[in-house]
Specification:
- This protein has 11 helices and 5 strands; from the N terminus they run H-H-H-H-H-H-E-E-E-H-E-H-E-H-H-H.
- The protein is of the alpha/beta class.
- It has a 5-stranded mixed beta sheet, sandwiched between helices.
- Helix 1 packs antiparallel against helix 2, helix 1 crosses helix 3 and helix 7 runs parallel beside helix 8.
- The longest helix has 18 residues.
- It starts with a helix and ends with a helix.
Length: 286
């Protein structure tokens, strides 16, 4: 038994037995015991920092790792510590984020239109609305599967538009594109490229007609190369790990509410490790 544990036992029984007798029994010094008692009433030196971190973890759905938390403390609170100190405190107080899970890639349906891979894994964009990526993911609930379609801008990684539906249809994708163009119609670049995988929605005639109508240039991942659309996959991985897997929605309504709240948090508040600011902060500054 460690000395600290022995001191705790002595403290609990201090009214029943003499302290000096218990110290001899446990082979510890009385000065060590009284030092332990004195420290009990003194807050640990990192308790205040831990409480600040805990409050932010509650606000950000317990999704910040120590690097992102270090950036938030420095940028928002003016608290400067070594990143390893932040890691130590988060470990000590059980404030670490969850480990991200990986999503398997699969292709469904037949192809009508196929496009070149113009993005070619170049995930950097010089300005907003130059490069968008899109995909559909599956949100499991007790009520069934909810399908989430979204469009992400590679300039700042913000979610430009998203739609959900109880069925995986072409209209789900078309409505997402329409929402994105409607929101960004005054800012969309003439050379906008919209990259997708080879899902049947993106190879459909209706999708071809819509992007032709909007003057959007389509780009498509190569068959069997999920990394070609890694930035879309990346967002779904973040969403599921930091929100869906941790709360497990029971109904479509609950899932929709969770997705909406998380995407707002992601766009407006969640600090990105590379930039140190939320996505829309970067977008509004350009």
């Amino acid at each position: 038994m460690r000395a600290k544990a022995k001191y705790a036992v002595i403290y609990r029984h201090r009214e029943q037995y003499p302290v000096s007798v218990m110290c001899r029994f446990f082979s510890v010094s009385r000065s060590g015991y009284y030092g332990f008692v004195k420290r009990m009433n003194r807050p640990e030196k990192d308790a205040a920092l831990a409480e600040t971190i805990r409050q932010q973890q509650d606000k950000c759905f317990h999704t910040y790792g120590y690097r992102r938390m270090w950036q938030w403390l420095k940028g928002s609170k003016g608290i400067y510590h070594n990143p390893k100190t932040i890691l130590r405190v988060m470990k000590k107080y059980g404030l670490l984020a969850e480990i991200r899970r990986h999503r398997k890639w699969q292709q469904m349906g037949r192809q009508l239109h196929k496009y070149q891979n113009l993005l070619n894994r170049d995930f950097h964009a010089e300005a907003p609305n130059r490069k968008w990526v899109t995909d559909i993911s599956y949100i499991q609930t007790k009520q069934g599967t909810l399908y989430l379609s979204m469009i992400r801008d590679l300039y700042d990684n913000s979610i430009v538009a998203y739609k959900t539906a109880a069925q995986q249809t072409v209209n789900l994708v078309l409505d997402t594109v329409r929402q994105a163009v409607r929101r960004e119609k005054k800012k969309v670049a003439a050379e906008l490229r919209l990259h997708s995988d080879q899902g049947f929605q993106y190879t459909s005639q209706a999708y071809f007609n819509l992007i032709q109508q909007y003057g959007i240039t389509p780009s498509m991942s190569r068959r069997g190369n999920p990394y070609d659309n890694a930035m879309a996959e990346n967002f779904f991985s973040i969403l599921k790990t930091e929100c869906i897997y941790r709360c497990k929605p029971a109904t479509f309504s609950q899932a929709n509410d969770m997705i909406g709240r998380y995407i707002h948090f992601y766009n407006h508040e969640r600090i990105q490790s590379k930039t140190g600011v939320p996505p829309l902060t970067l977008r509004h500054s350009c």
